[in-house]
Design brief:
The structure is a single chain. By secondary structure, the chain is an all-alpha fold. It has a single domain, classed as ADP-ribosylation/Crystallin J1 (ADP-ribosylglycohydrolase fold, Orthogonal Bundle), CATH 1.10.4080.10. The protein has helices at 3-24, 34-47, 61-75, 81-94, 102-113, 121-124, 136-139, 143-147, 152-164, 170-188, 197-215, 226-238, 246-253, 264-273, 286-296, 301-316, 323-326, 332-345. α1 (3-24) packs antiparallel against α18 (332-345) and α2 (34-47) packs antiparallel against α15 (286-296).
Length: 352
Amino acid sequence: MAGQNMSSKFRGCLVGSLFGDCMGAPFEGNDISSGDKLVIQRYFDRMEDPNFKGPFKKYTDDTAMMKSVAQFLIDTPEPDLKHLAELFTNEFFKQPRRGYGGSVVSVFEKLRKSKFNDIFLPSKEQFNGQGSYGNGGAMRIAPIPLYFHDDFDNMLNIAAESTKITHSNELGIHGALLQCLAVHQAFLADPNTPINVDEFCNKLLEKMKAIERSYYNDVESDSDTPYCERIKLIQKFLSTKYSDEYDDEVIRDLGNDISAFESVPTAIFCFLRAQNTIPGIKTDNIFRRTIQYAITLGGDTDTIACMAGAIAGAYLGEESINKAILQHCEKVEDIVKLADSLYAARPHDGKG
């Protein structure tokens, strides 16, 4: 991959993550009606006008924590997870009003109180020792598959360990790994070649099968593990003819809530669904179509759109993101600089 294309994909991924977060945040927790979908269409159309003056879109904890992950990789050539825990915690106490969930706030408070003595213990104690299975690990994971794009095993290891600082339940960890794999595949894909959605899913399925079977070692060989079952469900929806009930069935079966299991597969589905036209969404831009569709599914719109945006941006690069809309998002310039710093800090492979 040429250096210019790689740099564009670094920017596209991190800016795409920010874009989805900022654009999705105003709709978080909403059930989206057919009338609301028209409102969202106009919402995007108006902001594509460079002269439109609208409310500034602030980022949430999704971007705040993604920034920390990128900075941790930039700061430490040999990733130092204690440093990451400190970055997460310091970022929270500096700007606590970014929409952090109560459980992760408790983790940060315990980490600071213990002076980071055991960075994994607070998350292990969550929910009577079961740990959190939320999507907080997945929403921030994007810098890791970029940085380790040519070091697959290290990528998965750092992705899992960084997630465990706040989410120790296997569904939360595996959800983060699935998102990591999706961003990685999109990053390696040629943006000038259309995505083969079935092939994309089959590659994810193969990789997730190895990850989940190593954890669920007693599973029968012909049985589907949790996220593998979800990937097959994505394939089913992608091959299903659109109907008036289609989106309701996606929400019911794939989900749109704050759990990793009910949101990461949905974000991947939004990216793959947007490779083709979607009824009711009027745009030829795949990146915009991805974000707009994610928002129309309602629920945890900021995080699902954030994750979908990271995948789409990693595939298409920064050129795919409409600059007029982007100017309404908070701290765009900072995220571009962060992406450039991450690109410069990556382990050099001699390929640009």
